[in-house]
Amino acid sequence: MLRPERDDKKPTVSAYNKFARIFGLVMTLVYVALGLFIIFAGDNLNLSIGVEVRYFLGGILILYGIVRFIRVYQTFKRSSNNRDED
User: What pLDDT shows up at residue 33?
Assistant: First the structure.
C-alpha cells in the first residue's frame, strides 16, 4: 500500500527518535533518584561505605543526571527548531 505524499514536506520524527528522547528523560530521573536514594537511605540499608563516600557518590549521580537532562533538552530544542524552520 502506498502512502500519500505530504504537502508540507516537513520531516517527521521517527519512532526511534521519540523512544531515544523519552529514554533519555527517564534515565535522567533514574540517575537523580538513585543519587538521592544513596544519600538519604544509606543509613537504613546498612551500606558498608562511609558517609563521605555516600555523599560523594550521590552527588556525582545527581550532577550526571542534571548534565544528561541539559543535553537531552538541547537536542530536543534543536530538533524542534529544525522542524519549525523547514
Answer: 95
**Where does the pLDDT of residue 50 fall: very low under 50, low under 70, confident under 90, or very high at 90 and above?**
confident
Contacts of 82 (CB under 8 A, 6+ apart): 11
**Structure pTM?**
0.72
Q: What cell was used for 80? A: 524542534
One-letter amino acid at 10 equals: K
What 3 state SS string does the chain have? Answer: CCCCCCCCCCCCCCHHHHHHHHHHHHHHHHHHHHHHHHHHHHHHHCCCCCHHHHHHHHHHHHHHHHHHHHHHHHHHHHHHHHHHHC
Place of cell 549521580: 61
Rounded Cα–Cα distance for residues 73 and 83 (Å): 15
